[in-house]
């Protein structure tokens, strides 16, 4: 006569397995809910972000803070990439690239530091900057179209870069031990993005040299 299974024991094992499975599912959902959500999911999509704040940095430069979809969202911009802002100004579509001064460690918002070129101030730019003047005219709560990530270069850490010769080419890996950078005015923002990423990693041996000038 064979050994008969104990129905009570089988039921207990079943309950135990279901409990473990339930705990695993709950743990996964909790970890997933804590993971920051990415805003820039598709580089071909346009994302409407609302202006939260404008702060004067200098006589001609301002910081514009835009809200991400939720307080748990990050922008989702790899180091080396930038975003495009677009707006219809005086009947024409105007598109400009910008590199945020915030990173994906900042949740819920993205900051852009932009020099505002006013009309009739600089002889080389008699009409001023179309996009910078447009942004300066925005009221808190107005929205702007963002698109990205864009660009042909991505820094993946420890001196390693993925660089595309053109938009249709696959990325090629390049390694640099020392980086020389030249920047002027708010053009420093792409350099700061890269320098911040390198300095944040104590195991990144890459050396940075920056020549910067500003009016």
UniProtKB/TrEMBL annotation:
It comes from Chrysochloris asiatica. Keywords: FAD, Flavoprotein, Membrane, NAD, Oxidoreductase, Transmembrane, Transmembrane helix. Belongs to the flavoprotein pyridine nucleotide cytochrome reductase family. GO terms for molecular function: cytochrome-b5 reductase activity, acting on NADH; FAD binding. The chain crosses the membrane at residues 6-30. Residues 44-156 form the FAD-binding FR-type domain. InterPro entries: CBR-like, Cbr1-like_FAD-bd_dom, FAD-bd_FR_type, Flavoprot_Pyr_Nucl_cyt_Rdtase, FNR_nucleotide-bd, OxRdtase_FAD/NAD-bd, Riboflavin_synthase-like_b-brl. It comes from the Eukaryota. Coiled coil: none annotated. It is an enzyme of class 1 (oxidoreductase). It catalyses: 2 Fe(III)-[cytochrome b5] + NADH = 2 Fe(II)-[cytochrome b5] + NAD(+) + H(+). GO terms for cellular component: mitochondrion. Its cofactor is FAD. FAD binds at residues 96-98, 113, 115, 130-132, 189. Its EC number is 1.6.2.2. This is NADH-cytochrome b5 reductase.
